[in-house]
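Appendix B, Record 12. Input sequence as logged:
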Amino acid sequence: MRKLFSVLFVCCLSCITVTSFAQDDVRTWSLAENDTRYIFADTAFVRISTDTKQAPIDTLLTGEEITVVKITDKLLNLKGLTAPWIQVKYKKDGVDKEGYLWQGLISFRQVRRGDTKFIYAIDRRMDSTVVADDGVKMVMKYFLVKLKVVQAGQLKAVNSFKIFDGESANFGDAKIMSGLGLSNVQNIVVLTFGGEACGIESNYFYFAWLNDSRLVPLPARMSVGDAGAYYHDESFTFPAEKNGQPDIIRWDLVEGEATEKMDKNGEPVFKETKSTFNYSWDGVNGTFKRAESGKQKAKSY
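Logged structural output:
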């Protein structure tokens, strides 16, 4: 199964390097009229029209709230991202106002716990060039995603990671959970990026918001599959969950590959392999490390 998965993954990367999404850089925002979002940029200038030559009429800061009135057809390219201007309404000093912002300045959907806002979006394009064994140069297309934490109007922490600019970046979502038993952790934030088609992986990026206002990464995981052919499913078990252990994050992998055999219903028989290992969590330093070697077992069904 690992050989099959590696081949499929390399094929996906090959597609990513030659496919252009220049006019669709903001697909992951899933933005619609009347949506309410946060300002993602450190500073966002509101203008009277869709023109950067116009002097700003207001300045909004990270975490301030806007509501989308209209998504215009006027595009602007900044930081390697092509995105439309949007007409927004907002409140400034208690006064209701309207103006125009570039879409790349606002967040994905709103996520908060109490007065703590977790604000995330694609910050910019971050491409790199690699040279294959045969000397051919390929451009690897990436987005840089940032997660920011704002409390009482103050930016408290920022962290970031890269994702491929491909079909696995078509949709973004987030959820916030308790610390799930990890020491010194208030909340765990999970940012998900994926696509809808078979064979397109979903990637899950975990972050811990600590009691001392640090935002640190946790292990990430992914899942992918193609009906009737293969599947690869990773999962975590945290200390507060069933079979959890103190300050241990258990990683489990189930992989299945269709064989040439068929069951009585005419469905392919899968060869399944399971693996597991542990990450140990250090709540004082806000770090994790792989604690022990994995165990594997295989079966067919």
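The chain has a mean pLDDT of 87.
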